[in-house]
Design goal:
Shape: elongated
Structural class: mainly alpha
Order of helices and strands: HHHHEEHHHH
Oligomer: single chain
Distance between the termini: 73 Å
Largest sheet: 2 strands, antiparallel
Number of helices: 8
Strand order of the largest sheet: 1-2
Length: about 170
């Protein structure tokens, strides 16, 4: 009784959908549909039991294949699920404790602080030639304006080189 109904539903569905539910999915078809390299699909399906094997290779259910390809957690028993949940809760509690102790800080706040400090240091460095130029020129007995311009030029060149080296 269920067989005739399945056939009538298959006739109503587009050909690709009908064949995917009744025939299974080959590695080539999965790779093409998901736009993933065939070798990657093959590697990820190594532990999946095929729906069946036809003359050209193994056929898989889309659900089993998708779980293996996209890394859905492999939980087989309720005990495994409870163990996984307990481990996640323990990890979360540890993170909260580290945060309370001050060992863990918000990365967004740290990035803002680093940018702020970087701007302050950059401005201080750019002001350095004006700050020391007159005193240094007097010691060297050179034109203060020329010395400040030379220091600024060298400093900008140095900063551009540093920026080109990913801040190293």
């Amino acid at each position: 009784d269920a067989q005739p109904r399945r056939k009538s539903l298959a006739r109503q569905m587009p050909k690709s959908s009908a064949s995917s539910t009744s025939d299974g999915w080959s590695i080539n078809r999965l790779a093409n549909e998901l736009q993933i390299d065939r070798r990657t699909v093959t590697k990820r399906l190594v532990d999946v039991i095929p729906l069946r094997t036809n003359g050209s290779g193994d056929l898989y259910t889309l659900r089993d294949a998708a779980r293996a390809i996209f890394g859905a957690p492999k939980i087989k028993t309720e005990a495994q699920a409870k163990t996984r949940k307990l481990a996640a809760e323990a990890d979360l509690a540890e993170l909260k404790l580290e945060e309370m102790r001050g060992d863990l800080v918000d990365s967004a706040e740290m990035k803002k602080a680093a940018m702020r400090n970087g701007r302050v240091e950059r401005e201080a460095l750019l002001n350095w030639p004006d700050r020391i130029g007159a005193d240094l020129a007097a010691k060297l007995e050179v034109d203060p304006g020329l010395l400040v311009r030379c220091l600024e030029e060298e400093l900008r060149t140095y900063m551009e080189e540093r920026a080109g080296n990913d801040g190293l």
